[in-house]
# Entry
Amino acid sequence: MPLPPGAHILADAEAVARAAADRLVAVCADAPGDRIAICLSGGSTPKRLYALLAGPDYVDRVPWARVHWFFGDDRVVPWDDPLSNVRMAREAFGHGVPIPATHLHFIPSDLGAEAGARAYAETLRDFYGAESLDPARPLFDLVLLGLGEDGHTASLFPGKPALGEASAWAAPVPEPGMAPFVPRITLTYPALAASRWVLFLVTGAGKRDPLRRLAAGEALPASRVTSAGQVAWLIDEAAAEAG
Ligand code: 6PG
# Structure
């Protein structure tokens, strides 16, 4: 099956997670600034990556004191809710990683979708230090993304208004296109594009259909993600129908 440009097929989900961890370490190693901004993906695919980073093979290779952690989207539920991406990441990273509390920039989920999106955009602007994004100075060193079975990424769902947001850095998604059907807050295309690297992690046979549709040239939300740097796809054989 033809694959998006920048696609790498790997044997399985573990190989995808390890390749993503290697890329994250490399992005940190050549990050130009004192602070490193990494935007985490939600869902289930990245859990193994986060556990690897906290594990013996990688924990000493991540410059934890320099990295600031953001989210590409989250559900508008309390951070301890089983649907929360914050809870997923906290459980996956565990409690052993030395992340300074001031380096955790979670999406505010207690303000509602609209006010929360505005507040998160303010958090991003405060960190970036400017009101507008300069392509020569990306906001993120690395953005991690997943692919939904309908072709969404972050909480940018087909046919939803957030797709058309061309200036705000974060947007409310009151009616997501897939379960869980709770309001979301998502980064927008301009914010995702303000990156040195975008890395999609796609595993499992359930992602064959969106990959086929992307390969056929459908303008699914995931296909519209750009980067000031590079976009790469780490895809396992099950999703790529290879092997
Ligand atoms: C979310 C994610 C979402 C996810 C895809 C893939 O909040 O659910 O941000 O965009 O990355 O839906 O999810 P899986 O990795 O669970 O297949």
